[in-house]
Design a protein that fits this description.
The radius of gyration is 20 Å and the shape is globular. The longest helix is centred in the C-terminal third of the chain and has 25 residues. The two termini are 30 Å apart. It has two domains: 233 residues, Rossmann fold, CATH 3.40.50.150; 38 residues. Strand 1 and strand 2 form a beta hairpin. The protein has eleven helices and ten strands. The strands form two sheets. The protein has a six-stranded mixed sheet, sandwiched between helices. A four-stranded antiparallel sheet has the order 1-2-3-8, with no helix packed on it. The chain is of the alpha/beta class. Helix 3 crosses helix 4. The structure holds zinc ion (ZN). The site of zinc ion has 8 residues, from loops.
């Protein structure tokens, strides 16, 4: 996690400045509004910065409390193939191998990048997570961008699942851009606000997480964010396209998977269900409507 300074005008879209955002999802203490101009979902009111600092400073955010992760380390272990895919994605955009990972949590992506040959620095604002990352990486992890050595510049700055949490996403991305070498890229990921359930079934769409997710970006609004931060968007793609298994079927699978022969048969059926559902969705629906994630790369142009 990381946190930037607030910069939005109350009552206006924090991205494009448009007023009159329509209430989309009323919640007990908050509501999500949607901007008719840029399609951004944004939380109203913005939580007090001090409350957000406390929220993310709580070590339990990463292990089962505060609405964060049930078990961040288990998720990170399972995400290694995803880390490798992201590193390969980055390598198609830059030739240099200096990388800054912002919001590094316990440092697993930064470590994987280093193992893949990148020279890596990391940033994490949560003190407890930062200490964990420093132990894993056996190197200093900064609390803020400003805390980095003044002359440190990078070919790639990554911020995975961060921009939806910061109060001033334009200022945040712009601060990352100051650390790019000419031609370097900022890469971000965030939940896909263009998912059909965000629009049609917001009460059950899992990414409306107040007060954690201050924004949900669609592909156009994410590209707009990067451009407004002074970068040239190079790629926006939808991720996590696998069709989710129906919940009742998932529970049934968990009950019988421990039975050897039956478990094998269920595994085959499960793969078949996934494949057929994925194929159907790929043909019938646009990726924007069912992918859960967005990733974008934007480049710094010009400058010395
Ligand atoms: Zn807007």
């Amino acid at each position: 996690m990381t946190q930037s300074e607030p910069g939005a005008r109350p009552g206006h879209c924090p991205l494009c400045g448009g007023g009159g955002g329509e209430t989309h999802l009323p919640l007990p203490e908050y509501r999500y509004r949607t901007c008719r101009s840029c399609r951004l979902y944004y939380l109203d009111p913005v939580p007090a910065p001090a409350s957000l600092v406390r929220l993310y400073a709580d070590p339990r955010y990463f292990c089962g409390a505060g609405g964060g992760y049930d078990d961040y380390d288990a998720d990170a272990e399972a995400a290694i193939p995803e880390y490798d895919r992201r590193l390969a994605y980055l390598a198609t955009h830059v030739t240099g191998r200096r990388l800054l990972d912002v919001g590094c949590a316990h440092g697993q992506f930064a470590l994987r990048a280093r193992q893949a040959g990148w020279q890596v620095d990391a940033i994490e604002t949560s003190p407890s997570a930062r200490r964990r990352a420093e132990r894993l990486l056996a190197s200093r992890v900064s609390a803020t961008v400003r805390g980095l050595p003044a002359k440190a510049r990078y070919d790639a700055v990554t911020a995975w699942e961060v921009v939806e949490h910061v109060t001033d996403p334009i200022g945040f991305v712009a601060s990352l851009a100051t650390r790019l070498r000419p031609g370097g890229v900022v890469a971000v990921s965030t939940p896909n606000g263009g998912h059909r359930d965000a629009r049609l079934h917001p009460d059950r769409f899992p990414e409306f997480q107040a007060p954690l997710h201050l924004f949900l970006f669609t592909a156009p609004s994410l590209a707009s964010l990067l451009a407004r931060a002074g970068l040239l968007p190079a790629s926006v793609q939808f991720t996590s396209p696998e069709a989710p298994m129906p919940e009742a079927l998932w529970h049934a699978v968990q009950r019988v998977r421990g039975i050897p022969l039956l478990g094998s048969a269920v595994g085959a059926v499960r793969r078949a269900v996934w494949l057929s559902a994925s194929a159907t969705r790929s043909f019938v629906q646009r990726r924007e409507s069912y992918c859960l994630g967005l990733e974008a790369v934007a480049r710094r142009t010009g400058g010395a």
